[in-house]
Specification:
The complex is a heterodimer of chains A (319) and B (219). Chain A has 319 residues and is α+β, with helices and mostly antiparallel strands. Chain A has 11 helices and 4 strands. Chain A folds into 2 domains: 184 residues, no CATH class; 82 residues, no CATH class. Classes of the chains: A alpha+beta (319), B alpha/beta (219). At the A-B interface, helix 1, helix 8 and helix 9 of A face helix 2, helix 3, helix 4 and helix 6 of B.
Chain lengths: 319, 219
Amino acid sequence: MTDGRERSDPAAARKKVEKLPSAGTTIIPKTSIAGQALISVIAIMTFLASLTTGAVMLILASAADWQSEVSREMTIQIRPVAGRDIEADVRQAATIAKATAGIADVRPYSKEESTRLLEPWLGTGLGLTDLPIPRIVVIRVAPGDPPNVQGLRQALTSQISSASLDDHRGWVDRMRAMAGTAVAGGLFVLGLVLAATVLSVTFATRGAMAANQSIVGVLHFIGAKNGFIAGQSRRHFLVLGLKGGLIGGGAAVALFALAGILGTWFPATATGDQVAALFGTFSIGVAGYAAVLGQIILIAIVTAETSRRVVNHTLDTVE
Amino acid sequence: MVRFENVGLRYGLGPEVLRDLTFRIEPHSFQFLTGPSGAGKTSLLRLLFLSLKPTRGLITVFGHDIAALSNDSLATLRRRIGIVFQDFRLLDHMTTYENVALPLRILGRDEGNYRHEVAELLQWVGLGERMWALPPVLSGGEKQRAAIARAVIARPQLLLADEPTGNVDPNLAQRLLRLFIELNKSGTSILIATHDIALMDEYDARRLVLHEGRLHTYD
């Protein structure tokens, strides 16, 4: 077939073809999408979400430590009652506790030790010896072999009328509630971040569609299906989402790592001790890093899928 | 191949721009579509490449009633129709090679299978030296040939061309016409919309003349 145009040597033409770059140019030009702005928005969103997740994980880890520490101990309180020998009651309570299966250690507090427990509230130098101060027996629970708390309580109260057993369940329940609130708050913030990401991507995709209307028109008349056009957009936005997610998530991970390092540098300061007492170390652990990675992937997928749906919806509306 | 029966078209609540069109485009046929400005040529072309649906009448393309087809099915049919626009509609951020290869990329073909095919076609239309060039640096004639190459690369059964010689000198117009004739001889049905009487006089083919929305056929 010829139309009389100039023709080159076939061998030279073949060489030229071999040198051709692959048709790898994106069909939707990258420069036509407000890419940098969107990457910044996604990075900020991922950073906030990752900080929230890290904070929630720190609280959960600390709460789990506190819970296990608190639930490993129980306390028998013996109130002084007129006509009863409180020392004998303390000894009997210790004997009952020691005889109970699942108890690792029993330590009755002396009157002096019980009095010292009040010093933080009442101060020193007061004559407390004459006051009817309750006595305490601290019980350590054997790990992996929980005692029959109800049975122990019944045994104590049936033999010592002034004794009561506190298994610290109230504290544990409050800590569970606090940890649950922290998780709910974290999920709420994550939900807000995802909603903001969806809205940002929706506006960016609509802008890109408007800017590339002529390209979409060309794709249509050469037979591209809506799925193909939406797929082009999805691939592009997936890359943007991953870039933004990696920047934001990476910054959050770096911040946690820095806080952890600073914590080890100043362990002896009063503030450091307080923070360590509250949150332990700032290490979010493998689970924390996995959660941040999961968030990066989640935000990238949400970005890509939002774009695909917006393009599909726009094309359906146009046709 | 294409059948119109009593087709009418109006935009919104406006007057009918096409009225009672009844004609066929047969396989391996060659025809010119002409008529004064505003006669409805562009609207008829849009109906032919399935960008519009008629407000009345029946259009069947390759045996399918287009009114009953989904968007994806229409896209599949469009792959059997090549279109050359007067304003070329090349994608400025892609090279000439990439523009011409685009229909094959959309078909999901592996680039390794079509590189030589695209390069040979570009050689054939005289753009062998311009494969790397971006459309903004091509001349009007080169853009026109790139647009034609893109329209025929997927071997369409029907080629529609809207004023393909509108932006080129008479010499190049004749060469483009010869190119369309070659394509027709290789089995593609051709419909060229044009105002260019001299071009139509160059080749003895059926003429579809649109006047005030009505079609007159001169075989």
